[in-house]
C-alpha cells in the first residue's frame, strides 16, 4: 500500500469519528440516563408516559411493570420503559 491509498481512507475515518462524537455518543448517554431514571422510580412519583398520560405510581411490580393511577380510582398497568419523564419525586421513607 502506498501513501495515496492511505490518504483516501483518512477522510472516511474522520467522518466516522465526527459522526461518533455528534450522534452515537450523545444517544448512548441519553439511553443510560433514561435507564437510571426508570430504575429509580418508586411509589408516589408523578410521571408522564410516552403516550402523554400523567399519573402517580401506585405500585412498582416485578417484570418491568408499573401500576399507575391516572384518575381517582383508575389504575392502569404500564411497561416501566415507557415512562418519558418524572414530574415529581417522592422522598424515601426515613428508616426507624
What top-tier CATH class fits best? Mainly Beta
Number of strands: 5
Strand order of the largest sheet: 4-3-2-1-5
Unreliable runs: none
Instruction: Please state the second-level CATH architecture.
Output: Roll
Count of DSSP H/I helices: 1
Strand content bin? 25-35%
Look at the structure and give the mean pLDDT. Answer: 89
The class by helix and strand makeup works out as alpha+beta
Shape, per Cα inertia axes: rod-shaped
Largest sheet: 5 strands, antiparallel
Euclidean distance between termini CA atoms: 72 Å
Would you give the CATH topology?
SH3 type barrels
Structure overview:
The chain is an alpha+beta fold and 96 residues long. The chain has a single domain, classed as SH3 type barrels, CATH 2.30.30. Helices cover 39% and strands 32% of the residues. The chain has 1 helix and 5 strands. A 5-stranded antiparallel sheet has the order 4-3-2-1-5. A hairpin with a 3-residue loop joins strand 2 (54-61) and strand 3. The longest helix has 37 residues, at 3-39. The protein is rod-shaped. The model has no long low-confidence stretch (mean pLDDT 89).
Amino acid at each position: 500500500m502506498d501513501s495515496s491509498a492511505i490518504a483516501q481512507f483518512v477522510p472516511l475515518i474522520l467522518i466516522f469519528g465526527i459522526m461518533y462524537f455528534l450522534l452515537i455518543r450523545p444517544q448512548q448517554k441519553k439511553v443510560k440516563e433514561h435507564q437510571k431514571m426508570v430504575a429509580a422510580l418508586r411509589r408516589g412519583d408523578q410521571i408522564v408516559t410516552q403516550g402523554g398520560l400523567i399519573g402517580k405510581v401506585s405500585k412498582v411490580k416485578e417484570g418491568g411493570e408499573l401500576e399507575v393511577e391516572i384518575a381517582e380510582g383508575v389504575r392502569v398497568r404500564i411497561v416501566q420503559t415507557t415512562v418519558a419523564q418524572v414530574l415529581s419525586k417522592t422522598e424515601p421513607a426515613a428508616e426507624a
